[in-house]
Amino acid sequence: MMNTGKDGASKKSYHLYFAWLISVIATLGSLYFSDIKGFIPCELCWYQRIFMYPLSILLGIATFFNERQIIKYTLPLSIIGGGISLFHYLEQKVPGFAAIKPCTQGVPCTAEYINWFGFITIPFLALTAFILITGILWLGRKA
Q1: Helix crossing, 122-140 with 15-31: angle to 10°?
Q2: pLDDT tens for residues 116-135?
Q3: Which residues of 60-97 are buried (b: 16+ CB within 10 A; e: fewer)?
Q4: Tens digits of per-residue pLDDT, 52-67?
Q5: What percent of the chain has pLDDT over 70?
Q6: Cα distance between residue 34 and residue 108, in whole Å
Q7: What's the number of CA atoms in the CB half-sphere (13 Å) around residue 114?
Q8: 30 and 52 in contact (C-beta within 8 Å)?
Q9: Is residue 5 packed enough to be buried (19+ CB in 10 Å), middle (13-18) or exposed (0-12)?
Q10: Is the pTM of this model over 0.90?
């Protein structure tokens, strides 16, 4: 159902569009790092992907049909994915978190393929995307 303004004309909310755009950029970025740059994702990276990739599809469909009801389903995905990204980033940057070892096989979760400006790593980029998506969806609930 479309929002309508005072004049009865259709009023479209752009919250879904911006959240979808961020999720697509994050999804393509993760695919770039793994498929083009050859960075092997660690276990926590896979969990973050599990929460980000469906957002690109769900928010894309919801944007096309302007269905804001999807927010109640996508907001938890974004919040949980953000929590995983925050934990992963803290594990990379805070020495005490490295003792917690969710990554027991394959690439260690403390590995930093990129470290731009001394603090921007892949989990930081994912965390930024999840925070932006969460904020936009939160604002879009009532818009």
Answers
A1: 160
A2: 998 999 999 999 999 999 99
A3: eebbeebebebbeebbebbbebbebbbbbbebbbeeeb
A4: 999 999 999 999 999 9
A5: 86
A6: 15
A7: 18
A8: yes
A9: exposed
A10: no
